[in-house]
Structure to design on (533 residues):
């Protein structure tokens, strides 16, 4: 479902963030992306949701050829994937329910469907009882669960997470990882950039290590492999 | 797996965009006020200018249409020669009408047009020094000069007189003030547009997180743009309300006043309707255009969608 061929990315300031990446990720896989800061993890991930365009090479996601995809059609791509960030990116003036519903409202879904789908998703992440609260009244872990709910409410085949446990304490991180496991068990592909050594070494999945814009290691059931 | 992006807008979406745009108007408070005021001032000037220009043009046209050519007939001409001259003038294709005005009538007109001072000319009634005159009107006022040239070549036409200069002077005055007014208005239009674009920029910055999330979850670019377009448009339309009311009211009284003053004169100003509706429509459209233009500038610069 994801295929990168000889992908290069050079930023305007001369930094080379991807230097010949070749990778294939199948539907339903759970992949950790690890590597030192500034090694190109973020670029690798951003190219998947077309936040960055490669300077060379080809990227195919769900059969969509990203380098041929017109800017106008990017929304189409994004409706088929969910993205989760370290800083949650929630709207503070909206309730938990509204934050999740937002993702469906702006793609003009039917209100009845939205209500049903949002409640189902909140139940999945264990926040149904807090649907009417504001994100600021909730803990960091709960806020991240809202953001996960928002990313999967549209039933995407792929969820991309950029350090989703980066701002959370160890105990909360496990809760969040459990949710990702559940989502993955339902057949959704998960690609997660992370610095969390313990998580990677405990919940074993495929590990792709990126250094200097290249994939230096790609193991099924791999180790984190870095100190700290 | 692929889902189509929905392009036709649902009523729900229209309602959502409208609500969002009004929320921004309220949230931006003083910037909204400043933008609307700038549009208001600009459009009041546009309205006043437009009303004056259109009326001056109308007046100039009606004056132009009343330009007559006065052909002074040679004193020595016999009645037969005078008739020949009349036939020759009538034969000129551009000529509309020819009226004979004997010198006695001419003197009476002169005396009465001078009022009390005219009495001095009564002495001439004994020995009238004036010429008999043919009053010629052209079919199209623009042909006046051509006709004058042709008549001047005819025999027994002693002098040919027409409203030399007056119409030309009026038209050049109108042209001048039109140019000055246009420069002034363009300057004001840009100021108003700049203020609106700044207001929209504030909205975009205030909502950048929302916009970021919309883009992430796959909202179309148009879905993201609409509320900003609408906000700009409302600013423009709100700014056109006072100018429309002011121009309509002022023209109403000016019209009543002038129509009484001009009664009996061939100078006419434009009727209240439909002129006021035309001006109001123009102001409304201009307001909306300034608003949308301002928001487009900001959307292009800051939204990048």
């Amino acid at each position: 479902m994801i295929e990168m061929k000889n992908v290069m990315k050079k930023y305007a300031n001369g930094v080379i963030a991807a230097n010949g990446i070749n990778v294939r990720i199948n539907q339903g896989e759970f992949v950790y992306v690890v590597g030192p800061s500034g090694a190109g993890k973020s670029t690798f991930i951003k190219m998947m949701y077309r936040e960055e365009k490669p300077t060379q090479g080809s990227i195919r996601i769900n059969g969509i050829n990203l380098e041929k995809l017109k800017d106008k059609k990017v929304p189409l791509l994004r409706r088929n994937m969910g993205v989760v960030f370290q800083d949650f990116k929630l709207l503070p003036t909206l309730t938990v329910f509204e934050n999740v519903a937002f993702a469906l409202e702006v793609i003009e879904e039917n209100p009845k469907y939205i209500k049903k789908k949002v409640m189902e998703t909140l139940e999945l992440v264990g926040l149904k009882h807090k649907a009417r609260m504001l994100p600021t009244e909730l803990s960091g872990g709960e806020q991240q669960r809202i953001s996960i709910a928002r990313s999967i409410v549209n039933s995407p085949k792929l969820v991309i997470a950029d350090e989703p446990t980066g701002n959370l304490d160890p105990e909360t991180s496990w809760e969040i990882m459990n949710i990702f496991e559940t989502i993955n068990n339902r057949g959704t592909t998960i690609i997660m950039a992370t610095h969390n050594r313990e998580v990677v070494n405990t919940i074993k999945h495929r590990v792709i290590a990126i250094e200097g814009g290249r994939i230096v290691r790609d193991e099924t059931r791999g180790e984190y492999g870095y100190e700290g | 797996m692929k889902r189509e992006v929905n392009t036709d807008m649902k009523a729900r979406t229209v309602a959502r965009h409208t609500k969002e745009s009004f929320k921004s108007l309220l949230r931006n408070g003083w910037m909204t006020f400043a933008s609307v005021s700038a549009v208001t001032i600009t459009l009041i000037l546009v309205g006043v200018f437009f009303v004056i220009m259109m009326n001056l043009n109308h007046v100039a046209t009606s004056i132009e249409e009343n330009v007559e050519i006065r052909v002074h007939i040679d004193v020595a001409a016999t009645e037969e020669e005078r008739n020949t001259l009349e036939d020759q003038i009538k034969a000129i294709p551009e000529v509309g009408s020819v009226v004979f005005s004997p010198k006695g009538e001419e003197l009476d007109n002169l005396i009465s047009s001078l009022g009390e001072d005219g009495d001095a000319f009564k002495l001439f009634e004994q020995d009238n020094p004036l010429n008999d005159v043919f009053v010629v009107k052209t079919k199209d006022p623009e042909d006046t000069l051509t006709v004058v040239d042709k008549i001047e070549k005819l025999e027994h036409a002693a002098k040919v007189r027409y409203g030399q200069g007056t119409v030309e002077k009026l038209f050049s005055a109108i042209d001048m003030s039109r140019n000055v007014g246009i420069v002034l208005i363009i300057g004001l239009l840009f100021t108003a547009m700049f203020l609106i674009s700044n207001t929209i920029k504030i909205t975009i910055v205030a909502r950048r997180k929302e916009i970021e999330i919309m883009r992430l979850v796959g909202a179309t670019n148009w879905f993201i743009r609409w509320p900003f377009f609408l906000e700009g448009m409302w600013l423009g339309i709100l700014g056109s309300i006072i100018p429309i009311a002011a121009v309509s009211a002022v023209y109403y009284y000016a019209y009543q006043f002038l129509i009484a003053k001009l009664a009996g004169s061939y100078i006419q100003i434009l009727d209240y309707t439909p002129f006021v509706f035309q001006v109001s429509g123009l102001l409304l459209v201009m307001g909306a255009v300034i608003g949308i233009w301002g928001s487009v500038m900001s959307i292009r610069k800051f939204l990048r969608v």
Notes: Chain B touches chain A at residues 1-6, 10, 12-13, 16, 209-210, 212-221, 223 (CB under 8 Å). Chain B has two domains: 11-63+168-303, 68-162. Chain B has a mean pLDDT of 84.
